[in-house]
Amino acid sequence: MKLVILDRDGTINSDSDDFVKTPDEWLPLPGSLEAIARLNHAGWHVVIASNQSGLGRGLFDVASLNAMHAKMHKMLAAIGGRVDAVFYCPHSPEESCNCRKPLPGLFEQIGARFGVPLKGVPTAGDSLRDLQAGAAAGCEPHLVLTGKSAKGQPDGLPAGTTVHKDLAAFADFILQRAAKPLAVAI
Ligand SMILES: [Mg+2]
Ligand SMILES: [Zn+2]
User: How much is the pTM?
Assistant: First the structure.
């Protein structure tokens, strides 16, 4: 199974310091949904791993979160794209869970659910903690310079991190790499 794991806020949709709390506030970044659709058309399954501490902080409820994702799924379907699943951490930082990024719990849940070894699975996010979580789970880290990294990349990126302008550039990278013919030893 060809799997990529994506962060949500700041990677697929605009982030907000005030949290994204309603479907109206859920606005895709330019080209991000198309990037997911292009990955899908090349056979990649796309799954989201997202910290949603706004739930634990009482800023919105699960019904609102589901409504945001219904909007996302509908917009994706309109362009032939699909996200297979959204895994989220609902906890506030004080709850000391093991699924809030930078801890790898969400990624491990995804690997278990899909029965996929996470070693080398590409993961893209706009924050250091996204890549720390992915790298801790064995994934291949990719930073997008949108959202939290729109003003520049953070220090301390995990070894082997590849940096891309945005999710469209990440998709280009994945698709071009897959299209390269294998070297043939004679
Ligand atoms: Mg983010
Ligand atoms: Zn959690």
Answer: 0.95
